[in-house]
Amino acid sequence: MSYQLASTSTRAPAPPLTSASPPASNKRGGRWIDHWLDTLHDIEALRAAHPMMDAVIDEIDGRMIRVGEKWLADFASCNYLGFDLDPEIIASVPAFLEQWGTHPSWSRLLGSPVLYEQIEARLTDLLGCEDSLVLPTITHIHSSVIPVLAAVRRFRFEDPDHLDELLAAERDRARLVCMDGVNSMTGNAPDLRAFANVARRHGALLYVDDAHGFGVIGERSPQETSPYGARGNSIVRHFDESYDDLILVGGFSKAYSSLLAFIACPTEVKNLLKVAAPPYLYSGPSPIASLATVLSGLDVNERRGEQLRGELYRHSARVLAALAELDVHTPNRSELPIVEIPLREHERIDEVGRMLFARGVYVTLAAYPLVPKAEVGFRVQLTAANTDAEVDRLIAALTELAEMGELQSAAAVRELEAA
């Protein structure tokens, strides 16, 4: 069966090389790689020369990292709950290694440690879904679950009406709608209920990748310590949605700091994947240390997760309040810990990145063509393990950039959008 895919991606990926592609540039003799070198010139120039691209990190001390002789406050980590540095989780690993060794020697179809069954049982309970299957990475899951597509249609992020238009015009009745949960650049979550309603009305299956939401946002509860909700059980529970005609994909590599990912799906789909998904049939599984840190992380999430999410929100709210006071534009409306900060002039990405590095602030640079030129800038990611002093350092650097006129004005952006 073939599926149509509608994707929320608004980024500008390099065009694929196919037999119908135009000839490559002749600037360097027309080699096949020249096409890619030309397309990715801006980001390759940064990668080759910038201290915050393709860097070697020599040492860490909490959320401080050392690159060469320079110590920097790390705001490029996705370890949102700080589990990578949690003493309780770290201390749990040796006992698992003593019992199971460093790595299982089988593909999962042949056999796998009971740790997998324990993780899937606990995960299914946490998510409130029918069943779940874990594999090493989200990329493994995407390549296994999303079939070879007959066509691709892209819909605008956070625009369910646009999706409605595309589905109404699509003749093929077998539709798979793929979308992000919490967006990895803006930090915003779409109105999942609106998208689920559109997908169900057209008989489509909704496939949600919530890599950045799992562990951070969750079900609404009187016990929640922040607008993120409680338990960190992902976007479906956060919007009080059901799993009817909805598949949730997420990973432990961010909030849980472990090499593992999952798909929440009906048991019938899980059993089908066990005999159809190449990573389950053939690939080496995650190392025992990753399985151990997931199980220990689930324990910590039950006991201390709300405290950690409260701290994460406090840091995020401080940064967003500072940007508002400085009249700096960010698309983040959610107060989630991913803060995109576009530059006023996209050509200044190199200089701005070097200034941040010099001030001891490490961020994720977002260069063209990974993002459109109007969105070129950098992404700040807060974690519960960041300290107030590190956040102070970040805010001081942002203040300096704003005073230099390097960042987009929030008031100017609002005027432009209203025009």
Describe the fold and architecture.
The protein is of the alpha/beta class and 419 residues long. It has two domains: 42-83 and 304-418, Alpha-Beta Complex (Aspartate Aminotransferase, domain 1), CATH 3.90.1150.10; 87-301, Type I PLP-dependent aspartate aminotransferase-like (Major domain) (Aspartate Aminotransferase, domain 2), CATH 3.40.640. The chain is 39% helix and 16% strand. It is built from 14 helices and 14 strands. It has helices at residues 32-39, 41-49, 87-100, 114-127, 138-145, 160-169, 192-201, 234-238, 267-276, 278-281, 288-325, 349-358, 388-403, 410-418; strands spanning 3-7, 59-61, 64-67, 70-74, 131-135, 149-154, 175-180, 205-209, 246-251, 261-265, 338-342, 361-362, 364-366, 377-381. The strands form three sheets. It has a seven-stranded mixed sheet. Strand 2 (59-61) and strand 3 form a beta hairpin. Helix 6 (160-169) packs parallel to helix 7. The longest helix is centred in the C-terminal third of the chain and has 38 residues, at 288-325. The model is unreliable at 1-28 (pLDDT under 50).
